[in-house]
Amino acid sequence: MKRDAIVIRDPFVLAVQEEKKYYLYGTTDPDPWKEPGIGFDVYASSDLEHWEGPHPAFRPGAGFWGTHNFWAPEVYRYKDSFYMFASFKARGHERATQILRAETPLGPFELHSAGPVTPPGWECLDGTFFVEDGRPWLIFSHEWVQVNDGEIWAVPLSPDLGRAEGKPTLLFRGSAGPWTKGLLRRDGSGLEDARVTDGPFVYRADQGNLFLLWSSIARSGYALGVARSESGRIEGPWMQQAKPLLEAGRGHGMIFQAFDGRAYIAYHYPNDTPNERFHFREVGLEGARLALKGEER
Question: Which residues pair with 264 in a beta bridge?
């Protein structure tokens, strides 16, 4: 099927070099806000335009704690297996990130971590994965619906990715982004200073530059901003680019290297169900700044 026929939010592209094949994951339930959640599908392609699928990558088994909001799966190769980081929620259980594992990119993915790896009692979403000096990290959003000024945190994981292993570190809050728009708080105070944070993704670019993509609401709608680590390390400090990289309904992005050697940012647009589609665009460095190149596809 053609790329523009795939209804998908939060697209994530895994490029498998030895196969010369791309795998596309994302939020694929017809209505990802309603119960019950169905699961995640995956598509495969050799050219980013024509895709095979959908193939069922994950379907919940009996007794799985998550019942709905099956959101934003990301898949990484780590120690010869494939690991999925995804968000789930249930009545009486906060939204959280669970790690799943499979032998192949197509799955089936099965539960791997001993329950959620985000902090208990926190409303969290969009866990992403990064390895720094051999140490695995989970980077995730602490939701604005709980803390008003949404937050991006990082926590070390055990070497086998079975659990969080260490104290979480706050990287920054949504209000640090000068382009973000204040929203009405959920606490009934009437204040409009809440900020969304979602869709974090860490990208190591040339010359050692370390960037963190994240999404929020700008005046033009859903948007994607970029922060750069001044230390070049995951714990920062993080400095925000003054303007969003993508806006006007574009967001929840990640960066992958294509087989032509170029780096592309993948994202969804527009930001309303069921019209979301997977788009991508080349990115590169302008000095120490991440910038768009070429045309949107």
Answer: 256, 282
